[in-house]
Automatic annotation (TrEMBL):
This is DUF1211 domain-containing protein. Belongs to the TMEM175 family. GO terms for molecular function: potassium channel activity; proton channel activity. Keywords: Ion channel, Ion transport, Membrane, Potassium, Potassium channel, Potassium transport, Transmembrane, Transmembrane helix, Transport. GO terms for cellular component: membrane. PANTHER family: ENDOSOMAL/LYSOSOMAL POTASSIUM CHANNEL TMEM175, ENDOSOMAL_LYSOSOMAL PROTON CHANNEL TMEM175. It catalyses: K(+)(in) = K(+)(out). The chain crosses the membrane at residues 10-29, 41-60, 81-98, 104-125, 146-167, 173-190. It is found in: Membrane. It comes from Methanobrevibacter cuticularis. It is a multi-pass membrane protein.
Length: 204
């Protein structure tokens, strides 16, 4: 069964817009205008920036991905639902980090959520790739494995950050907050044209 591509995009775009709105509403206003109070407020805005950047990066990738979809199937819809489920948890984990700025567990959980969102997103990539390959005779093995390599690199990087956090606990928070920013920047700037042209074949 095929579904409307436009309704699929509108629903996903709407969910992401709501997620960003909820995140910004979680920024606590301060009545403490001392240096410490202003610093805490700026930290909250920075955490919002990180979450905003993550959602924006996913929106950019999602938009490019759906352009490659020849049709929207039931499998694609439900894998997209799983992706949006993890992304919709971002406001809660953002609030957790905001309320516990010096605690490692909320930030680590935030990064794990980021990984789960990436894994679920690339399940959509693989499903769209599979649908397109059913129409073709040849399969580029390197391209087929590209999403798995991407996820593997994210997980390895997080493991390295955890090791560094154990060795250098004073920079732990910086490392964990920087982790999703780095990979979001990579997604935006390393794929200068079409981020999926190396993964998905052109429509025929």
């Amino acid at each position: 069964m095929e579904y409307s591509k436009h309704r699929f995009e509108f629903f996903s775009d709407g969910v992401m817009a709501i997620i960003i709105t909820i995140i910004v509403l979680e920024i606590p206003l301060t009545n403490n205008f001392s240096f410490e109070g202003i610093t805490s407020f700026l930290y909250s805005i920075f955490i919002f920036f990180v979450s905003f950047f993550i959602v924006g990066s996913f929106w950019n990738k999602h938009h490019g991905l759906i352009d490659h979809a020849k049709k929207i199937t039931n499998k694609i819809i439900w894998k997209n639902m799983i992706f949006l489920f993890f992304l919709a948890l971002l406001p809660i984990f953002t609030k957790w980090v905001l309320e516990n700025p010096d605690n490692l567990i909320p930030v680590l959980s935030y990064d794990i959520l980021f990984i789960l969102a990436n894994i679920s997103f690339f399940l959509i990539v693989k499903e769209i790739y599979r649908e397109k390959m059913l129409k073709r005779n040849e399969i580029d093995r390197d391209n087929r494995e590209h999403p798995s390599i991407h996820i593997f690199s994210i997980i390895i990087t997080l493991i390295l950050i955890i090791i560094l956090a154990i060795l250098f606990p004073q920079i732990t928070i910086i490392l964990f907050i920087g982790f999703p920013i780095i990979f979001s920047l990579m997604n935006i700037f390393l794929d200068k044209n079409d981020p999926f042209e190396k993964i998905l074949p052109n429509n025929e």
